[in-house]
Amino acid sequence: MFDFVSPFWSWFIIAGTGGGIIAMFILNIWLGKDSGPKGENGETVTMGHVWDEDLAEYNNPLPKWWLNMFYITLVFGIVYLILYPGMGSFQGVLGWTQANQYDTEVKAADAQYGPLYEKHLKVPVAALVKDADALKMGERLYLNYCTVCHGSDAGGGPGYPNLRDEDWLWGGTPEQIKAGITNGRMGMMPPKGGKTDMTEADVQDVAAYVFSLSGRDAKAGDAAKGKTTFDTVCMACHLPDGKGNQALGGANLTDNIWLYGGSEKAVHKTITEGRSGKMPAHGEFLGEAKVHLLTAYIYSLSNK
Question: Is the separation of the CB atoms in 237 and 210 below 8 Å?
Protein backbone atom coordinates (compact mmCIF):
# COMPACT_ATOMS: atom_id res chain seq x y z
CA MET A 1 0.00 0.00 0.00
CA PHE A 2 2.81 2.37 0.89
CA ASP A 3 5.72 3.06 -1.41
CA PHE A 4 8.20 5.20 0.49
CA VAL A 5 11.71 5.22 -0.93
CA SER A 6 13.17 5.22 2.60
CA PRO A 7 11.93 5.06 6.24
CA PHE A 8 12.78 8.76 6.58
CA TRP A 9 9.65 9.87 4.75
CA SER A 10 7.42 7.73 6.94
CA TRP A 11 8.86 9.29 10.08
CA PHE A 12 8.74 12.71 8.45
CA ILE A 13 4.97 12.37 8.03
CA ILE A 14 4.52 10.97 11.54
CA ALA A 15 6.53 13.82 13.08
CA GLY A 16 4.71 16.50 11.11
CA THR A 17 1.24 15.10 11.80
CA GLY A 18 1.85 14.30 15.47
CA GLY A 19 3.67 17.58 16.09
CA GLY A 20 0.81 19.51 14.52
CA ILE A 21 -1.76 17.86 16.79
CA ILE A 22 0.35 18.56 19.91
CA ALA A 23 0.81 22.16 18.81
CA MET A 24 -2.95 22.56 18.42
CA PHE A 25 -3.53 21.27 21.95
CA ILE A 26 -1.03 23.81 23.29
CA LEU A 27 -2.66 26.60 21.28
CA ASN A 28 -6.11 25.69 22.62
CA ILE A 29 -4.84 25.72 26.22
CA TRP A 30 -3.27 29.14 25.68
CA LEU A 31 -6.42 30.52 24.04
CA GLY A 32 -8.44 29.35 27.04
CA LYS A 33 -6.47 31.52 29.47
CA ASP A 34 -7.49 35.02 30.40
CA SER A 35 -4.31 36.79 29.31
CA GLY A 36 -5.77 40.21 28.54
CA PRO A 37 -4.69 43.43 30.29
CA LYS A 38 -6.10 44.09 33.77
CA GLY A 39 -7.01 47.27 35.63
CA GLU A 40 -5.88 48.27 39.13
CA ASN A 41 -8.63 46.16 40.75
CA GLY A 42 -8.05 43.15 38.46
CA GLU A 43 -10.88 43.94 36.12
CA THR A 44 -10.52 43.32 32.39
CA VAL A 45 -9.78 46.47 30.43
CA THR A 46 -9.71 47.17 26.72
CA MET A 47 -6.70 46.88 24.44
CA GLY A 48 -6.88 50.63 23.89
CA HIS A 49 -8.57 50.45 20.50
CA VAL A 50 -11.95 52.17 20.20
CA TRP A 51 -14.09 52.63 17.07
CA ASP A 52 -17.28 54.55 16.52
CA GLU A 53 -16.96 56.23 19.92
CA ASP A 54 -17.89 53.20 22.07
CA LEU A 55 -16.82 50.05 20.16
CA ALA A 56 -13.86 48.79 22.20
CA GLU A 57 -11.50 45.86 21.63
CA TYR A 58 -10.95 43.33 24.43
CA ASN A 59 -8.67 40.29 24.70
CA ASN A 60 -10.99 37.83 26.43
CA PRO A 61 -10.42 34.05 26.30
CA LEU A 62 -12.43 31.99 23.82
CA PRO A 63 -15.78 30.65 25.09
CA LYS A 64 -15.57 27.18 26.64
CA TRP A 65 -18.02 25.69 24.14
CA TRP A 66 -15.86 26.93 21.28
CA LEU A 67 -12.66 25.52 22.80
CA ASN A 68 -14.41 22.23 23.50
CA MET A 69 -15.34 21.95 19.81
CA PHE A 70 -11.65 22.29 18.94
CA TYR A 71 -10.76 19.59 21.48
CA ILE A 72 -13.42 17.26 20.04
CA THR A 73 -12.00 17.62 16.53
CA LEU A 74 -8.47 16.93 17.81
CA VAL A 75 -9.59 13.82 19.69
CA PHE A 76 -11.50 12.68 16.60
CA GLY A 77 -8.33 13.12 14.54
CA ILE A 78 -6.28 11.05 16.99
CA VAL A 79 -8.83 8.23 17.02
CA TYR A 80 -8.99 8.30 13.20
CA LEU A 81 -5.20 8.06 12.87
CA ILE A 82 -5.20 5.09 15.24
CA LEU A 83 -7.88 3.23 13.29
CA TYR A 84 -6.98 4.17 9.69
CA PRO A 85 -3.80 4.87 7.66
CA GLY A 86 -2.42 8.37 7.95
CA MET A 87 0.74 8.17 10.02
CA GLY A 88 3.43 7.24 7.53
CA SER A 89 3.63 3.49 6.95
CA PHE A 90 1.36 2.67 9.91
CA GLN A 91 -1.67 0.95 8.38
CA GLY A 92 -4.07 1.52 11.26
CA VAL A 93 -5.59 -0.90 13.74
CA LEU A 94 -8.47 -1.80 11.40
CA GLY A 95 -6.12 -2.61 8.50
CA TRP A 96 -8.31 -0.64 6.08
CA THR A 97 -7.20 -0.19 2.48
CA GLN A 98 -8.85 1.20 -0.62
CA ALA A 99 -8.39 -2.15 -2.35
CA ASN A 100 -10.14 -4.05 0.46
CA GLN A 101 -13.05 -1.63 0.48
CA TYR A 102 -13.34 -1.82 -3.31
CA ASP A 103 -13.34 -5.64 -3.26
CA THR A 104 -16.00 -5.65 -0.57
CA GLU A 105 -18.24 -3.29 -2.51
CA VAL A 106 -17.75 -5.24 -5.75
CA LYS A 107 -18.68 -8.51 -4.04
CA ALA A 108 -21.81 -6.92 -2.57
CA ALA A 109 -22.78 -5.52 -5.98
CA ASP A 110 -22.13 -8.87 -7.69
CA ALA A 111 -24.30 -10.65 -5.14
CA GLN A 112 -27.15 -8.21 -5.74
CA TYR A 113 -26.94 -7.63 -9.48
CA GLY A 114 -25.08 -10.73 -10.70
CA PRO A 115 -28.23 -12.81 -11.27
CA LEU A 116 -29.55 -10.11 -13.63
CA TYR A 117 -26.54 -10.65 -15.90
CA GLU A 118 -26.23 -14.40 -15.40
CA LYS A 119 -29.72 -15.15 -16.74
CA HIS A 120 -28.60 -14.01 -20.22
CA LEU A 121 -25.33 -15.92 -20.26
CA LYS A 122 -26.65 -19.10 -21.90
CA VAL A 123 -28.60 -17.22 -24.58
CA PRO A 124 -26.67 -17.01 -27.90
CA VAL A 125 -25.56 -13.54 -28.97
CA ALA A 126 -27.59 -13.77 -32.16
CA ALA A 127 -30.72 -14.21 -30.04
CA LEU A 128 -29.79 -11.54 -27.51
CA VAL A 129 -29.75 -8.85 -30.22
CA LYS A 130 -33.52 -9.33 -30.40
CA ASP A 131 -33.94 -8.89 -26.62
CA ALA A 132 -34.53 -5.20 -25.88
CA ASP A 133 -33.83 -5.57 -22.14
CA ALA A 134 -30.56 -7.38 -22.78
CA LEU A 135 -29.44 -4.70 -25.24
CA LYS A 136 -30.25 -1.96 -22.73
CA MET A 137 -28.05 -3.68 -20.16
CA GLY A 138 -25.29 -4.08 -22.75
CA GLU A 139 -25.60 -0.43 -23.70
CA ARG A 140 -25.17 0.66 -20.07
CA LEU A 141 -22.07 -1.52 -19.81
CA TYR A 142 -20.75 0.04 -23.01
CA LEU A 143 -21.36 3.59 -21.74
CA ASN A 144 -19.52 2.80 -18.51
CA TYR A 145 -16.49 1.00 -19.89
CA CYS A 146 -16.05 1.72 -23.62
CA THR A 147 -16.98 5.32 -24.39
CA VAL A 148 -13.59 6.76 -23.47
CA CYS A 149 -12.02 5.12 -26.52
CA HIS A 150 -14.91 4.43 -28.90
CA GLY A 151 -17.16 7.41 -28.12
CA SER A 152 -20.67 7.49 -26.72
CA ASP A 153 -22.07 6.80 -30.19
CA ALA A 154 -19.53 3.98 -30.84
CA GLY A 155 -18.29 5.96 -33.84
CA GLY A 156 -14.67 5.76 -32.73
CA GLY A 157 -11.98 8.26 -33.67
CA PRO A 158 -8.37 8.37 -34.91
CA GLY A 159 -6.78 5.18 -33.62
CA TYR A 160 -10.05 3.85 -32.15
CA PRO A 161 -12.28 1.67 -34.36
CA ASN A 162 -15.80 2.57 -35.35
CA LEU A 163 -18.00 -0.20 -33.96
CA ARG A 164 -21.01 0.70 -36.11
CA ASP A 165 -19.62 -0.27 -39.51
CA GLU A 166 -18.83 -3.73 -40.84
CA ASP A 167 -15.07 -3.21 -40.96
CA TRP A 168 -13.42 -5.40 -38.29
CA LEU A 169 -9.65 -5.75 -37.95
CA TRP A 170 -9.95 -9.01 -36.01
CA GLY A 171 -13.32 -10.19 -37.31
CA GLY A 172 -16.90 -9.24 -36.50
CA THR A 173 -18.48 -12.55 -35.50
CA PRO A 174 -19.85 -12.81 -31.94
CA GLU A 175 -16.99 -15.16 -31.02
CA GLN A 176 -14.33 -12.79 -32.36
CA ILE A 177 -15.89 -9.75 -30.70
CA LYS A 178 -16.14 -11.58 -27.37
CA ALA A 179 -12.51 -12.71 -27.66
CA GLY A 180 -11.43 -9.10 -28.23
CA ILE A 181 -13.34 -7.84 -25.19
CA THR A 182 -12.21 -10.71 -22.98
CA ASN A 183 -8.52 -10.95 -23.89
CA GLY A 184 -7.87 -7.56 -25.46
CA ARG A 185 -6.03 -6.93 -28.72
CA MET A 186 -2.54 -5.71 -29.54
CA GLY A 187 -2.26 -4.14 -32.98
CA MET A 188 1.10 -3.36 -34.50
CA MET A 189 1.97 -1.87 -37.87
CA PRO A 190 5.80 -1.92 -38.00
CA PRO A 191 7.58 1.12 -39.46
CA LYS A 192 8.69 0.58 -43.04
CA GLY A 193 10.25 3.90 -43.98
CA GLY A 194 13.61 5.45 -43.27
CA LYS A 195 16.41 2.94 -42.94
CA THR A 196 14.21 -0.14 -42.69
CA ASP A 197 12.44 -1.70 -45.67
CA MET A 198 11.60 1.21 -47.97
CA THR A 199 13.12 4.36 -49.34
CA GLU A 200 11.11 7.57 -49.47
CA ALA A 201 10.26 6.85 -53.10
CA ASP A 202 9.12 3.34 -52.16
CA VAL A 203 6.83 4.77 -49.49
CA GLN A 204 5.21 7.13 -52.00
CA ASP A 205 4.78 4.30 -54.50
CA VAL A 206 3.20 1.96 -51.91
CA ALA A 207 0.91 4.76 -50.73
CA ALA A 208 -0.19 5.31 -54.33
CA TYR A 209 -0.93 1.60 -54.71
CA VAL A 210 -2.82 1.50 -51.41
CA PHE A 211 -4.97 4.41 -52.56
CA SER A 212 -5.70 2.59 -55.82
CA LEU A 213 -7.03 -0.41 -53.89
CA SER A 214 -9.90 1.71 -52.61
CA GLY A 215 -10.47 3.50 -55.92
CA ARG A 216 -8.56 6.66 -55.07
CA ASP A 217 -5.69 8.42 -56.82
CA ALA A 218 -2.53 9.67 -55.11
CA LYS A 219 -0.84 12.90 -56.13
CA ALA A 220 2.63 11.38 -55.85
CA GLY A 221 4.08 7.91 -56.43
CA ASP A 222 3.74 5.11 -58.98
CA ALA A 223 1.03 2.57 -58.10
CA ALA A 224 2.50 -0.11 -60.38
CA LYS A 225 5.89 0.09 -58.65
CA GLY A 226 4.11 0.26 -55.31
CA LYS A 227 2.36 -3.05 -56.00
CA THR A 228 5.71 -4.78 -56.44
CA THR A 229 6.94 -3.48 -53.10
CA PHE A 230 3.57 -4.20 -51.49
CA ASP A 231 3.69 -7.85 -52.59
CA THR A 232 7.13 -8.16 -51.01
CA VAL A 233 6.77 -6.22 -47.76
CA CYS A 234 3.06 -5.83 -46.95
CA MET A 235 1.31 -8.91 -48.29
CA ALA A 236 1.69 -11.07 -45.15
CA CYS A 237 -0.54 -8.81 -43.06
CA HIS A 238 -2.79 -7.31 -45.73
CA LEU A 239 -2.96 -10.34 -48.10
CA PRO A 240 -2.41 -10.18 -51.88
CA ASP A 241 -5.80 -8.57 -52.54
CA GLY A 242 -5.30 -5.99 -49.76
CA LYS A 243 -8.37 -7.11 -47.81
CA GLY A 244 -6.41 -7.77 -44.64
CA ASN A 245 -5.50 -10.78 -42.53
CA GLN A 246 -7.92 -10.84 -39.59
CA ALA A 247 -5.82 -13.43 -37.78
CA LEU A 248 -3.11 -10.76 -37.43
CA GLY A 249 -5.36 -7.72 -37.24
CA GLY A 250 -4.26 -6.59 -40.69
CA ALA A 251 -6.42 -3.77 -42.02
CA ASN A 252 -8.60 -4.07 -45.09
CA LEU A 253 -7.17 -1.51 -47.54
CA THR A 254 -9.90 -1.83 -50.14
CA ASP A 255 -12.89 -0.31 -48.35
CA ASN A 256 -11.69 3.28 -47.86
CA ILE A 257 -12.13 3.04 -44.07
CA TRP A 258 -9.05 4.31 -42.26
CA LEU A 259 -8.32 3.81 -38.57
CA TYR A 260 -5.65 6.52 -38.41
CA GLY A 261 -6.89 8.76 -41.22
CA GLY A 262 -7.04 8.35 -44.97
CA SER A 263 -5.29 11.49 -46.17
CA GLU A 264 -2.05 11.15 -48.14
CA LYS A 265 -0.15 12.59 -45.20
CA ALA A 266 -1.72 10.15 -42.74
CA VAL A 267 -1.14 7.10 -44.94
CA HIS A 268 2.44 8.18 -45.65
CA LYS A 269 3.01 8.57 -41.89
CA THR A 270 1.53 5.13 -41.20
CA ILE A 271 3.78 3.41 -43.71
CA THR A 272 6.89 5.32 -42.66
CA GLU A 273 6.55 5.36 -38.86
CA GLY A 274 4.17 2.48 -38.22
CA ARG A 275 1.24 2.37 -35.81
CA SER A 276 0.64 0.74 -32.46
CA GLY A 277 -2.72 0.22 -30.78
CA LYS A 278 -3.92 -1.69 -27.75
CA MET A 279 -7.37 -2.84 -26.71
CA PRO A 280 -7.11 -3.70 -22.97
CA ALA A 281 -8.52 -7.01 -21.73
CA HIS A 282 -11.82 -6.71 -19.83
CA GLY A 283 -12.66 -10.36 -19.18
CA GLU A 284 -11.23 -10.67 -15.69
CA PHE A 285 -12.57 -7.26 -14.67
CA LEU A 286 -16.13 -7.58 -16.03
CA GLY A 287 -16.73 -11.31 -15.79
CA GLU A 288 -18.16 -13.66 -18.38
CA ALA A 289 -21.82 -12.61 -18.03
CA LYS A 290 -21.17 -8.90 -18.52
CA VAL A 291 -18.83 -9.58 -21.44
CA HIS A 292 -21.58 -11.67 -23.05
CA LEU A 293 -24.11 -8.81 -22.82
CA LEU A 294 -21.54 -6.28 -24.00
CA THR A 295 -20.74 -8.51 -26.96
CA ALA A 296 -24.41 -8.67 -27.90
CA TYR A 297 -24.76 -4.89 -27.80
CA ILE A 298 -21.65 -4.24 -29.89
CA TYR A 299 -22.64 -6.97 -32.34
CA SER A 300 -26.07 -5.36 -32.71
CA LEU A 301 -24.53 -2.03 -33.76
CA SER A 302 -23.33 -3.41 -37.08
CA ASN A 303 -25.91 -6.19 -37.45
CA LYS A 304 -29.32 -4.58 -37.37
Answer: no
